[in-house]
Design goal:
Bound molecules: zinc ion
CATH architecture of the largest domain: 3-Layer(aba) Sandwich
Distance between the termini: 72 Å
Number of domains: 3
CATH class of the largest domain: Alpha Beta
CATH topology of the largest domain: Aminopeptidase
Shape: elongated
Strand content: 25-35%
Structural class: alpha+beta
Number of strands: 24
Length: 537
C-alpha cells in the first residue's frame, strides 16, 4: 500500500531545481542559455571540471552537511585520454597522467551495520562524437543529457531524502572518469569490495532526459539485481508516477557505472532513457517511443533539448524506491547478500541476515546454508536452523555454523525459504557466494595431556605477538595468565610467538589434576583459540 508520507515527499521533487542543476553544470552563465561560448567542459581531465566538482560538493553539503561530503580520488593514465580522443582523430593536446575525483555525500542510517544504498550518476562528459572533430582542451563538453540529467537526480534526491531517517545509510555519488572507461565507479567498487562494504543496492542513472516522445525509462539489470528493478517498478505503480518502465536483463552490459559493481558481486541497475541511445534498431526506436539521440557525446548535448518532466518523474522514482521502506507503514524485509557469509576465525562459518525493511520481523525465521558445486549446481544442505529472535528494522543477526573444510567453495544461503515471514520482497532471500577458506590459526598447544613436574612445560606455539594466554581451572576460575613477550615470559627465555606454562597458578603453586580450559586472544581482544587441556600430576 502507498504511504502518504512517501507520496507527499515525491511531490516535492521540483522540475525547476533539476533544470537549474543541469544548466549550472552545462553552461557557464545559465542566464545566457545555450549559446556559443557559454558551454562548459566537464571532460575528466579538463581544468574547468573543478568548477563542476565544487558545484556538486556544495549542493550535497547544503543537503547533508559539510562534513558528510568527501572527495574520492583515483588516477587517470594519459593513455586513456589519448585513446578516447584518437577515435575521432583529433588528439591535439597531449595529456599527462592526472587525478580525478568522485564526489560522495553520505546520509548516515540509524544502524551502521545495516549497510548502504547508493544513488549515483557520472558528472564527467565528452564531446568526442561532435561533427567536425573535437579538441578536448579547446572545445566544450556540456553533457546536459549525458549526464548532468543524472547528477541533477542525485542532488535533488539528496535534498529530499536528507530529512528522513532510515536504518541503512544512503550514499549520493557523482562519478568521474566514466567516459574514459568507468574509471571512477571502478575505483570505488574495487575499494568497497576490498573493505567488504555491505552495499545493499546501487541505483545508477545515466541519460534520463532526452526522450520527448514518452515519459519512459529503461532499467538494465542482471539476474542478481532483478529485485532492484522489481522494487522500482512496484514504486512507480504504487505512487502513480506515470513512467513507462521497460526492464532489460543484460548481464554483459557495460554502458555505465553499474557494471563495476556487478563485477564485484554487488547488485546494481542503470536507469537510462534508451539503453543504446544512438542505435536506431533498439526496441524503443522501433516501437516509436524513443527518438535516436544524435546529440549525446557532442558539443550540442544542451539543456534546451531536455524533457524536464521526464527528469522529474525519474527522480520521483529514485526517491520513492528508497523512501517506500523508510516512511509510513514499512514492512520487514529479510535479506542476505553476497558477502554475508563469512569465514570465522575459528575456521567456522558465520552468516549475516539483515532486516533492510522498516517493519520488525516479529517471529523467528529459518536460515539454511548449502554447499554447491563450483558452477553453483548440485547443492547439499550443510546447516539448517531456526533463528530464535526476530529482527528490528535495520538490525542484523549473525549465526554460527560449525564447518571445518578448507578450499574454494560455493555456498547457497537462504532465509525464510518457507515464506513464514510476510516481507516487502522475497527476492533477496537467497544468494550464492563463493568463499576461499583457509585455516586461520596455526597455534599448537602441546603436550596434551600435560604431566606436571620435573620442569615439564606446556608450550603455546604460533601465538601472535602480544596475544594473551589464559588458563581456567575446572571450576572456571582464572588460574594463570601471560602475554606473549611480556617480562615474565622473557625471563623464561621463550622464543618469539611462544608462551610457556609450568603448570602453576599466579602465586606459583602447581595446580591440581583436572580438565583446564585455555583461551588465546589477540591484542585487539579477538578470540583466536579456546580448547581443553588435561592436567595430570
Ligand atoms: Zn553517460
Amino acid at each position: 500500500t502507498a504511504s502518504p508520507a512517501v507520496a507527499a515527499l515525491i511531490e516535492e521533487v521540483a522540475a525547476e531545481r533539476l533544470q537549474a542543476h543541469v544548466e549550472a553544470l552545462a553552461l557557464i552563465d545559465p542566464a545566457l542559455g545555450s549559446v556559443p561560448g557559454n558551454m562548459r567542459s566537464r571532460f575528466t581531465v579538463h581544468p574547468e571540471i573543478v568548477e563542476s566538482i565544487e558545484y556538486i560538493r556544495s549542493q550535497l553539503a547544503a543537503a547533508l552537511g559539510d562534513r558528510a561530503v568527501k572527495l574520492h580520488s583515483f588516477p587517470i593514465d594519459s593513455w586513456r585520454v589519448t585513446s578516447h580522443t584518437a577515435r575521432r582523430g583529433n588528439p591535439e593536446h597531449v595529456p599527462t597522467d592526472t587525478t580525478a575525483y568522485n564526489v560522495i555525500g553520505t546520509l548516515p542510517g540509524t544502524d551502521p551495520a545495516a549497510g548502504y544504498y547508493i544513488i549515483c550518476a557520472h558528472y564527467d562528459a565528452t564531446g568526442v562524437r561532435s561533427a567536425g572533430g573535437w579538441d578536448w582542451q579547446r572545445d566544450p563538453a556540456p553533457g546536459a543529457d549525458d549526464n548532468a540529467s543524472g547528477v541533477a537526480l542525485v542532488l535533488e534526491s539528496a535534498r529530499l531524502l536528507a530529512g528522513q531517517q532510515f536504518p541503512w545509510s544512503i550514499r549520493f555519488i557523482a562519478w568521474s572518469g566514466e567516459e574514459l572507461g568507468l574509471l571512477g565507479s571502478q575505483a570505488y567498487a574495487d575499494l568497497a569490495a576490498e573493505r567488504d562494504d555491505n552495499i545493499l543496492g546501487v541505483l545508477n542513472f545515466d541519460m534520463i532526459g532526452f526522450n520527448d516522445l514518452q515519459q519512459r525509462l529503461e532499467l538494465v539489470t542482471n539476474p542478481g539485481s532483478q529485485w532492484l528493478a522489481n522494487e522500482m517498478v512496484a514504486a512507480a505503480e504504487r505512487y502513480g508516477i506515470g513512467l513507462a518502465i521497460d526492464v532489460f536483463e543484460d548481464p554483459g552490459s557495460r554502458i555505465s557505472d553499474h557494471a563495476p559493481f556487478w563485477r564485484q558481486g554487488y547488485d546494481a541497475i542503470v536507469g537510462i532513457e534508451n539503453h543504446l541511445p544512438a542505435d536506431p534498431t533498439t526496441y524503443g526506436v522501433r516501437e516509436g517511443v524513443y527518438r535516436v539521440n544524435s546529440q549525446y557525446h557532442t558539443v550540442v548535448d544542451l539543456p534546451d533539448s531536455l524533457n524536464w518532466e521526464l527528469v522529474r518523474r525519474t527522480t520521483q522514482l529514485a526517491v520513492a524506491t528508497l523512501a517506500q521502506y523508510g516512511l509510513g507503514e514499512g514492512m520487514p524485509n529479510l535479506a542476505v547478500f553476497t558477502g554475508d557469509l563469512l569465514g570465522d576465525r575459528a575456521d567456522d562459518l558465520r552468516v549475516r541476515v539483515s532486516n533492510i525493511g522498516l517493519g520488525a520481523v516479529a517471529s523467528s525465521f529459518s536460515v539454511q546454508v548449502s554447499q554447491c558445486a563450483l558452477d553453483s549446481s548440485r547443492c547439499e544442505v550443510i546447516h539448517r536452523e531456526q533463528a530464535p529472535e526476530g529482527l528490528t528494522p535495520g538490525a542484523s543477526a549473525e549465526l554460527h555454523i560449525p564447518w571445518q573444510r578448507f578450499g574454494e567453495m560455493v555456498f547457497l544461503i537462504e532465509v525464510d525459504a518457507e515464506g513464514q515471514v510476510n516481507e516487502v520482497s522475497e527476492t533477496d532471500n537467497r544468494v550464492f557466494q563463493r568463499l576461499r577458506l583457509v585455516p586461520q590459526s596455526k597455534i599448537a598447544v602441546f603436550p596434551n595431556p600435560f604431566r606436571i613436574g620435573n620442569g615439564s612445560v606446556l608450550r603455546f606455539s604460533g601465538v601472535p605477538l602480544k596475544s594473551s594466554v589464559q588458563v581456567f581451572g575446572p571450576a572456571g576460575d582464572l588460574v594463570w595468565k601471560a602475554i606473549e613477550d611480556d617480562d615474565a615470559q622473557r625471563r623464561l627465555g621463550t622464543v618469539a610467538n611462544e608462551v610457556l606454562w609450568y603448570g602453576v597458578n599466579h602465586t606459583n603453586i602447581p595446580v591440581g589434576n583436572g580438565v583446564y580450559i585455555y583461551a588465546i586472544h589477540s591484542p585487539e581482544g579477538t578470540l583466536l583459540m579456546r580448547d581443553k587441556i588435561a592436567v595430570v600430576r
